[in-house]
Every structure is written in C-alpha cells, then in structure tokens.
Amino acid sequence: MLAAEAAAALVLEHTPVLPAEEVRLAEAPGRVAAEDVVASRLLPAFPASAVDGYAIRSADGGGRLRVVGESAAGRPFAGQLEGGAAARILTGGVLPEGADSVVMVEDVEESGEHVVVPTGFAAGRNFHAPGADLRPGDRVVSRGQPLGAAELGLVAALGIDRLRVHRRPRVALMSTGDELVEVGQPLGPGQITDSNRWALLAALREAGAEVELLGIAPDRPQPLRELVVAALDRCDVLVTSGGVSVGTHDLVKPLLESLGEVHVGRVKLRPGKPFTFATLPHGKLAFGLPGFPVSSLVTFEVFVRPALRRLQGYARLQRPRLPVRLDYDALASGDRTEYQRVRLRREGPDLVATSTGSQSSSRLMSLAGAHALVRIPPGAEGYPAGSVVEALILELP
Ligand code: AMP
Ligand code: MG
Questions:
Q1: pLDDT greater at residue 104 or residue 120
Q2: What whole-number distance in Å separates Cα of residue 47 and Cα of residue 54?
Q3: Which terminus of the chain is more exposed, N or C, with fewer CB under 10 A?
Q4: Are 343 and 369 spatial neighbours (Cβ–Cβ below 8 Å)?
Q5: How far away, in angstroms, is 289 Cα from ligand 1 center?
Q6: pLDDT surpasses 90 at 245
Q7: 11, 38, 278, 287 from 260: Cα distances, Å
Q8: Which atom, in ligand 1's list, is nearest to the CA of 292?
Q9: Are 96 and 77 in contact (CB under 8 A)?
Q10: Does the N-terminal peptide bond of residue 44 adopt cis geometry, omega within 30 degrees of 0?
C-alpha cells in the first residue's frame, strides 16, 4: 500500500500534457497558454489623453491660448500645435504634435475661441505615454498560465486574435453499483440515488474538464467493460466511482488491469484507501474513485484535480496550501494521511480551523461549505487543539 504523497507523485509522473491547439479569443477564457505571449508593439501606441480638456505646450502655462482645433478619440488633430495655441482634446484623443501636456477642462477658463490655462503647468500631465502599459518584448502571458480577464484584454489590445492553448481533457464519468438508481427515479428496497456522478461532474468542470456522462454501470464485468471500452475511444480520461474496494462486486480494478497497467491500487489515505489509478493504451488515464461520497471527492482533490491541471498544461497544479491552527483535537489515523474537512475563520493574522463535524466518509455534509482539507500526517499521537497544520485551501473565508 502506497503512502498518499507517493501515490500523488506517481499519478503526476504518468500524466502527460495534452497537445496544444490554436483557438480564437472567444474560445480562450480559462484555457491555459501553451506558449509565452510577448508584446510586439507599444501599448498605448500613441500619447492618449486621459481626460477631456485642452492639449497645450506647457511653456504656454498661464497664457490665453487660441483654440485651433480638436483631437477626439479616433479623430486626431491634423497638424502641429504652435506656441500660443491649444487644441480641444477628448479622452482617448491623440496628443497633437507639438503639445506636451493636457489641461483638464475643469482647470481652464473658456471664452469663445480662447482658453486661459493655469500657470506653472508641467509637461507630461494627463496623458498616457506610448508604451506605458507594454513595450515590445514585454511578456504578457507565460506558458502554463490560465488566460484570465486581464491577460485576454492585453492580448486583444495587442491585436492578437488567436492563441495557442492546451486542449481540455475529455473525461468519461461513470458510476458503478447495482444499488444505484438514476436521480429522479423511484427507489426500491436497498437502492440509493446515484449522487456521486453529479458531485464529480461539478468537480471535473471546475477543474477544466469536458465531461461525457456515461450513466450507471451494473456490478457485472461484461457490461462494465463494454461501457468503458466504448467511452475510451472518445475520451482522454476515465473516472469511475464505486467498485474499487475488495468485495466480490468490486470489478473496476480487474477491468483496469486487463486494459492497461494499474499503478496505484490502495493508498494510505483517509478517506480514500481504495483509490485506483491506471494508465491505458494511447496515453489515456483511468481513475477508479471509491464509492463513498466523501472518499470520491477527497481522492478527486488529492489525485485527479492536479492530474487534470497537468493535462491542460497548468504550471501550477496544486491548490494553495496554508498553515492553519486547529481549534479541535485531531486524532491521527495510524499509518494513513488523513484529510479532515474544516471551516476556517480569521483571528488576526491566523487562520483557525473548526471541524465540519463527523468525518464519516459517507457524510457528504462534512464537505458542504468546507473551506479547506486539513492534512493530518500519519502517526500515533495526533494534534491537540492549538497545533498548526497544513491545509489545502478550497476557499478562503
Ligand atoms: P463501493 O466503493 O462500490 O463499495 O461503494 C461504497 C458505498 O458508497 C456504497 O455502499 C454506497 O453507499 C456509496 N456509493 C457508491 N456509489 C455511489 C454513488 N454513485 N452515489 C452515491 N453513493 C454511492
Ligand atoms: Mg459498489
């Protein structure tokens, strides 16, 4: 049985980065850059007024200047601004040749064809200099970085309309178990609604995957195999829940063994001991998650999410990890690393963790509204209240 950290490292070792593709900007939000984007021109490209007012020569400060024309956004003033003259300028208008400053309209006295401008007016006021934002050679986006709002805005401002990004992983998602019933359908004796598929759908989408929902596979080898084999044609990754513990109806591990190579079959992790990971032909990956709802989502966080991010080319694979102070006594779990679900609150500069209650692997309420997974390393002693431990941050309060 592998240590949790060794299993996580093994998963990433076997996870490739998906090929890059070129997309239009409309398809780019949230994708990960496959190459650096470097500015090839100045931004702004010309001196652009930051306000509505008058473009002047600062040497004319204190004077009564003749208004000789206008520079509006997209309609520059044609010609040179001579001494003793001003040009009306609007926000975004090009600073005319010869001018070196803009006086805000609020700071002048307008009278007919003339304006009186304040004395002691410095050069360089109220306009954005060429290259103030970007100069040729400046890096706008680094490879491995997700394309967020500011990045895409800069890319567009530079006139770039296509970007090389990594493909999103296509994930086939399936639940296994004879006890499972499709959501919304009536339950017979001993049956439960398949909830893992919807929980995992949300987790997969948040992690950037394109999900194909496969439905529920029964606990019989042949139909399970047929579903999986058909889905693998279309997908990069298979994610199943259930059917990986050691009972007689646990069919996922033998199936993966017959299709590829199982690298992880059991992990010193709580919850999530039966987590299974395999590589399949053509660089595909399979994750067999345990059936218990919390176990499936915790193993998703620890193993699947970082792998999905590697597939998409992210430079940063892990959630942020921060030290937190426990306000409860945490028992350690023998030789297993335990991830306990907590809510956080701020006390001065500290983050303080409160348990979400019973940590049973079937109690999904322990994850609802959790801010973090506190990592309790294996050991006999545990961590009394007041101890500082590392937490994997889902959301800061
Ligand atoms: P298994 O790993 O197949 O032994 O499943 C363990 C337990 O997890 C089952 O007894 C169910 O209570 C629960 N379980 C399995 N699959 C699901 C599912 N898709 N949705 C909700 N609970 C499930
Ligand atoms: Mg089962």
A1: 104
A2: 14
A3: C
A4: yes
A5: 10
A6: no
A7: 14, 42, 7, 12
A8: 8
A9: yes
A10: yes
